[in-house]
Hints:
The protein is α+β, with helices and mostly antiparallel strands and 153 residues long. Helix content is 31%, strand content 20%.
Amino acid sequence: MLLLNELKLYLEEIKIPFNIMNLKSIFFDLKIYGANGKPEIFSLEVIEDKNIIKVREARNELPDFCPNRHINRGGFFCLGLLDNKTKTTPEMWLDLVKDFLKAQIFVNKYRSWSENYAEWSHGDAAYYQERVELNLEKLKKYGITLTVDKLEL
């Protein structure tokens, strides 16, 4: 689980300036290059809430809530299970945020989620999706191949 202090140390190391708002909140700008090579600057707010890191875009350029774009209420990004379930390094987390923002650039242009970006189910369903995918991988070891295009419960 990534904590805000670890992220601050990493941002200092890679020379990304940030502003400390309080003990549990920082702001920083992140330059993202879209498929056309044009840079876009995203201002991000990162907060630590109950030992969980949450991030959202700070200038209201992204919707405050849009499940189809993986943006939770309050504008917080849904970053999948890596978000807080596993040991995440600051570098892994920042790479995930960059990929998320590249996907947002794609959505702004094409009005749909790109197949180039991983997509987890929403909310608790992501846990069950992970379990299914892990078990499908186990079956492959025994020469059993199954594909699941859509799983409905």
